[in-house]
Design brief:
The protein has one domain: Immunoglobulin-like (Sandwich), CATH 2.60.40. The chain contains five helices and ten strands. The strands form two sheets. A six-stranded antiparallel sheet has the order 1-2-3-4-8-7. A hairpin with a 3-residue loop joins strand 3 and strand 4.
Length: about 210
Amino acid sequence: MIAPSRLSALIAGIAVSAASLMTISANPASAQQGQRPDGWFKVCAKQDTNDICNTQFQSVASTGQVITSVNLIEVTGETSRRLFQVTVPSGRLIPAGVKLRIDDERETTLPYLYCFPERCVSQVDLDDNLIGILKAGGKMTVTSTNVQNRENPIEVTLSGFTAAYDGPPLQQEELANRQRELQDELRRKAEEARKKLQEAQDSAKSGSN
């Protein structure tokens, strides 16, 4: 058996590498068709004697910052472990935890496991009951509370989750394509923001003359 510290390192490794494959909040129809770099997807990797798969969804701001990341991590091989993780930005109110609500069901609170300078992670064990709930659901609301005690709810579509979880993982070429499409989308959004700012500045100058 792998020592707990070694297992944590393995899980953190794939979670961090997957986090670099950032996706924009999903459009449900396009997520199912796989035509855009958004929605649920699965990546797998082999580390030592273990296979680690991560079915994930990430909501990313136009700046490229990950707003919310949901990860279903499964380790098989010498070690067997299943984890459900939610990642939110840093600057969170730790005692409040992360609140999850699927459709109109009762809200559940996940405790924080640890915080880094750029993100905080909550984690619980993953079981078949939770997977079944996600497959049957339409949307999941993830709410964290910042240090000003203000709640920040983020809606995560569950459309496309079943196909991603039960289907094959993305191949390296598919992952690279997603990353390129994401970068193009972020550049487009940044250019739109720049133009709006310029127009506002020009309008302000015209009004002052």
